[in-house]
Amino acid sequence: MSVPRPAAVIVLAAGEGTRMKSQTPKVLHEVCGRALVDHMLAAARDLGPEQLIVVIGHALERVGGHLAATSPDARAVVQREQRGTGHAVRTVIEEVGTISGTVLVTYGDVPLLRTQTLTDLLERHEAEGNAVTVLTAEVPDPTGYGRIIRDEAGAVLEIVEEKDAGAEQRAIKEMNSGIYAFDGLLLADAVKRVSTDNAQGEEYLTDVLAILRRDGHRVGACVAGDFVEVEGVNDRVQLAAARKVLNQRLLERHMRAGVTIIDPASTWIDVGVRIGPDAVIHPGTQLHGATVIESGAEVGPATTLTDTLVGEGAVVRNAVADHAEIGPEASVGPYAYLRPGTVLGRKSKAGTFVEMKNTKVGERSKVPHLTYAGDATIGQDVNIGASTVFVNYDGVNKHHTTVRDGAFVGCDTMLVAPLTVNEGAYTAAGSTITDDVPPGAMGVARARQRNIEKWVLRRRAGTKSAAHAERALAEQEQENQQ
Ligand code: UD1
Ligand code: CA
């Protein structure tokens, strides 16, 4: 059966979320790289609604600003005072007008809700010709939730909030998820008739069910297969729990698509991450944002990548990278830090204790150990010796260094930018290079060595060094005499 597109999805997100104890509005807290409200909007979008509406109120500027930036297709409706879920929906209808067709109402704090579950709800709603269909779930502990009251035949009679419920009703384990499919015209009429005559003095959206039933309309329920999906996030314990469930779902999807994940429990992946088949993700790895791992690449252990591309067959170990591009078969780490603008060519290397920023490394070039490269262009087949520093900052401005194809930079070279080490040129180990080195030349910039004979015997007499030196010198003398 084809599911009809809902006329509107209304996401309620005006509440404060006090239990988060946060400066950040609840629905903007993130799990797996996406704000709670954006998870709901993504699932809602999959249904193809004609209108996507978000009710906002608390932290209006921040939530409204976030939505305008990330969900321009959503219309924000402001509910100045949060006078209940019924009031929130009434506010929407007063502002956008009566919506004919199916109206889905949901919350901004249910990140685990799957599109399929919403589709099931819409299908049931349609098939039964209901005025309202509520998504419910059997939960082990229904404390705090509204309870679903059914008659002996199992028909839904009403929803009673915990604070208004008697002991017998409180024993009911079937909870109201707060997610419903409504007939838009009937909703518009019924929501105006909701009273505030209850324990909280609020306009309860839940009352619409009893109102519609009394009017003689069909009221139905759809029981969610997994109650975890409809549990909202109210505090940071639930936030962590939701993140874990969502992460596990994402990992399973990747594993089923051919990605090896050695330790799912210590691997954290954002929703926007893409991973190719036969990639291997080692323990302690976090992949954030729009990170892409191409097939056959190996990432981790203990690696954190943000908005980074890892090419086919590349190996990235114990590394942190942010907005970097790691070419196919390149090698990174262990213990490397690639900052924004790092681009590593095919088969290149950024090795141990190497930091790079805004630096392009050509194919097959190696930066194996203990190096800082900032604002540099490194050609192909270049070797950068251990302990090289691209001295890019003069205290006021940043300058660029170019190392051309086939160059060999000796260990412990300071490359004081701006300068160019040309094709095939060398620099002598320990040089502080301040001028261009011509193609094929050797740049030497260091003092010549001078040895002060027997200095240690005179100035460090009595030390172990002096004793060893004395013995060696005596042996030398003996050999010379023979
Ligand atoms: C509501 C339901 C309850 C259900 C539970 C599921 C009512 C009366 N009760 O209770 O049956 O079991 O959700 O989580 O509907 N909101 C607004 N404007 C308001 C009030 C709330 O936008 O004026 C938003 C909140 O931001 C929140 C959602 O609606 O996302 C639910 O509000 P909340 O006050 O948490 O309702 P509950 O008391 O949990
Ligand atoms: Ca709630």
Question: How would you portray this structure in words?
Answer:
By secondary structure, this protein is an alpha/beta fold. The chain folds into 2 domains: 8-230, Alpha-Beta Complex (Spore Coat Polysaccharide Biosynthesis Protein SpsA, Chain A); 265-443, UDP N-Acetylglucosamine Acyltransferase, domain 1. Helix content is 23%, strand content 29%. The chain has 10 helices and 37 strands. The protein has a 19-stranded parallel sheet that branches. A 7-stranded mixed sheet has the order 5-4-1-6-10-7-11, sandwiched between helices. Strands 29-32-35-37 form a 4-stranded parallel sheet, with no helix packed on it. The protein is elongated and about 120 Å long. The N and C termini lie far apart (104 Å). The model has no long low-confidence stretch (mean pLDDT 97). Residues 232, 234 line the site of calcium ion.
**CATH homologous superfamily classification of the largest domain:** Spore Coat Polysaccharide Biosynthesis Protein SpsA, Chain A
Q: What would the CATH topology of the largest domain be?
A: Spore Coat Polysaccharide Biosynthesis Protein SpsA, Chain A
What's the total count of β strands? Answer: 37
Number of domains: 2
Number of helices: 10
Binned, the helix content reads 10-25%
What ligand species are in this complex? uridine-diphosphate-N-acetylglucosamine, calcium ion
Q: Approximately what portion of the residues adopt beta-strand conformation?
A: 25-35%
Secondary structure category: alpha/beta
Mean pLDDT: 97
CATH top level of the largest domain is Alpha Beta
Using the CA coordinates, give the radius of gyration: 33 Å
The rounded distance between the terminal residues' Cα atoms is: 104 Å
Which architecture of the largest domain per CATH?
Alpha-Beta Complex
Low-confidence stretches: none
What sort of overall outline do the alpha carbons produce when their principal axes are compared? elongated
